[in-house]
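Fold this sequence, please.
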Amino acid sequence: MTKDEVLGRKSRPSEVTVAEGSKFIGAVFLYMFLALLITGVVAVGLGFLFEKLFFTTDPGTFNQAYAITLIVSLVLYIPTMIWVQISAIRNSKAMVPAYVIYAITMGVLISTFTNFIPFYEIAIAFGGTCLAFGLMTLIAWFSKRNVGKLAIIGSGLLFGSLMLVGINLILGLFGVVIEPLLWAIQFIMLIAIILITIFDLRNVKEIADRGGAGTNVALLCALSLYVDFIYIFIRILGLIARLKR
């Protein structure tokens, strides 16, 4: 056996690993894109539909129909997320419809924004989210540092922001509104989600470096990134809306 043959055999597993890893990354971002597309179509379409109904039907009927739609979505939201997690653990094909239903449910909930926020502000928030997500991907992919601590810091900041939300709600019961506190909540939540997103992106890269994984793992990773994207979008949209006040 020649030296070249030995080297050739040693290089094949690495090449296969890289190819499978690249395929895994492509699948993750494709599933994420499809979920965002479904959510966007549902949000815009439903918002447009109810806006038309508002002008052609009794406002009371409109509000009742919209309220029922939102309640159904909220009822499905948590069970669908649990369904996705269980399907991933069991390696079940049921994860695909669960993933789609979750994206549709999120689209219904986000459609509420179209009723009181101008479309150009939504477009700006979406563009800003795409830019931020791209920058976070570059950081996760090329950073040499261990980003594991970012998830811990992000989770801590998120917990702290939720405590501030609780304080704000208590103050609101007494008619007290502290504007700097509202801004602090928005910024802290945004930073927390950004840090968690970088960790989730690095996790995708590490799985790919090990040769990738099956469809359900790709879907689960896509779901994590999808949720991160939606939360960042909501936070940026909240900041834009607050600036316009």
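The two ends are 76 Å apart (CA to CA). Residues 193 and 241 are 19 Å apart (CA to CA).
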